Amino acid sequence: MVDWVGLTVPFAYLGILVGSLATFSSLYRKRKAAKSSTLEPWFGPHVQRDIYLSLLHLEPEPGKDKSPTVPDGVLKAALLQRAVEDIRRILEVRNAKQPLSNLLQRGSVGDDLWQRFLRAEKEVEAELRDVVEEANALQSGWGQTIFQSANEMHHNGILREKLNAIQVQGKSDKEWWQHEKASIQSKFMKELDDGEKENTKPAATSGGEKMGSDEDTVLVEGGGPAASGAASNSSKGGTAKRRKGKK
User: Fold this and answer.
1) What is the mean pLDDT of residues 167-175?
2) Is 214 left (phi over 0), alpha (psi -120 to 50) or beta?
């Protein structure tokens, strides 16, 4: 015979254990959901989505019953801009997922940041599905190619920004080069002027020395009275010796 009284104790223990675990799990999930809802969003406000929704759900003007109709071309352009912003967010999420996961494993970032990232990833996925549905509603089959067109527009925008940055940098570099060119020319002309001044000074001093030597030469060659007297005495002495020799 089965002792039901003895089996009630372990069954009661298991029931209490399972109930406490279920209660704890429910409370933990509610607290986690409340905490994640208070976290700061990963991305900023989606302006392109707000513009599209405002165009899609225009309110009637005062005094009129019908709301103004928006052309399909305007709605398609707004939806395409919304898809371009979604492409940018997709790329940011993909590029940040692996590094953020590595940092979380190392303990460099907290769990709050990871929860923000996971919530942003889910929001992006829901946004992609919504864009595909809206594209198919505007034009049948457009949802399959809208993100391809948005990706091309996104890359064209990046190239345009790079070209604008290169042009701005080219203007600044040109101004810098003009300034450096003017300074180099001024320094070169100053060095030329200094070299010419240094070359004229030795030429003037050498000319003065040459004139002084010429004057000394003239004075030596001229001789003066002393030189003439010495010449006459030497001639008289020579004649006297010749006369004695004749005698």
Assistant:
1) 87
2) alpha
Q: In b/e form, how buried is each residue of 177-208, taking b as 16+ CB within 10 angstroms?
A: eeeeeeeeeeeeeeeeeeeeeeeeeeeeeeee
pTM of the predicted structure, to 2 decimals: 0.58
* Residue written as token pair 């990871």: 114
Q: Is the pLDDT of residue 208 over 70?
A: no
| pLDDT, tens digit, 9 for 90 and up, residues 48-77 | 999 999 998 887 777 777 777 888 899 999
Contact between 43 and 89 (Cβ < 8 Å): yes
Mean pLDDT score across all residues of the chain: 78
Question: What's the per-residue H, E or C state across the chain?
Answer: CCCHHHHHHHHHHHHHHHHHHHHHHHHHHHHHHHHHHCCCCCCCCCHHHHHHHHHHCCCCCCCCCCCCCCCHHHHHHHHHHHHHHHHHHHHHHHHHHHHHHHHHHHCCCCHHHHHHHHHHHHHHHHHHHHHHHHHHHHCCCHHHCHHHHHHHHHHHHHHHHHHHHHHHHHHHHHHHHHHHHHHHHHHHHHHHHHHHHHHHHHHHHHHHHHHHHHHHHHHHHHCCHHHHHHHHHHHHHHHHHHHHHHC
Please give the C-alpha separations between residue 35 and each of 30, 111, 115, in angstroms, as whole numbers: 8, 11, 10
